[in-house]
Amino acid sequence: MIAIVTGANRGIGRAIAARLGADGAKLVLCARDEALLEDTAAAIGGACVVPIDLRLPDSGQTVVNAALAAYGAIDVLVNNAGATKRGDFESLTEEDWMDGYALKLFGAVRLARAAWPHLRASKGALVTIAGSGGRTPGAQFTIGGSVNAALLSFTKALADLGLKEGVQVNCVNPGPVKTARFEKRLAQTAAEHGVDAETALDIFVRGEKITKVGDPEDVAALIAFILSPHGRLLHGSLIDVDGGLTKTV
Prior knowledge:
The structure is a single chain. The chain is α/β, with parallel strands linked by helices. The protein contains nine helices and seven strands, in the order E-H-E-H-E-H-E-H-H-E-H-E-H-H-H-E. Helices cover 50% and strands 14% of the residues. A seven-stranded parallel β-sheet has the order 3-2-1-4-5-6-7, with helices on both faces. Strand 2 (26-31), helix 2 and strand 3 form a beta-alpha-beta unit. Helix 4 runs parallel beside helix 6.
């Protein structure tokens, strides 16, 4: 399996890269921070590293060209890159909105477009990491929720095309996961309540009405299952992995 993983320098992306690498995949890892990418590659025993800003118009083709130069084919694309700014709606700027869409939505779209002919040739798979905010919007997550909702719709549309062309297409919606971004939210909770990190985590879990905050490896395990022979029945699926956060049908 030859797999492109974006946002692979930390958090969920790094965990996905590590899991797919352990399962024998040849990897192409993308993110902006070259040093962290190289560290990820070293930790998993080697990979093709492409330090790049996926907000740039030609970035998708650049990544695909690197994958073809390294391995000659593409079997899997995991679109994971993208972070959006949280905050009060009135305080979010035009630049915040444009940046949120530029990387997480348009970066994913242009990479999918560049990789699609090769995924079609290999009868491969595309998995997008969106987020629970796409189903359950919140006042502090107007950018992220709307971007994630767009990715859910994009997944359904591409899945329809994938039926005709032999490409498996799915989307995974993580809830709160223990990443560096979550640690910042947890620190805010601890400061607001004047408690330690462990107590803040308990407050967060009870407040969100979830079973637990996930680990990046939880999401990586799901991705590995989707891409395995056991997961081939999944197609056009929008899969919530959020500890019960999503209450909608």
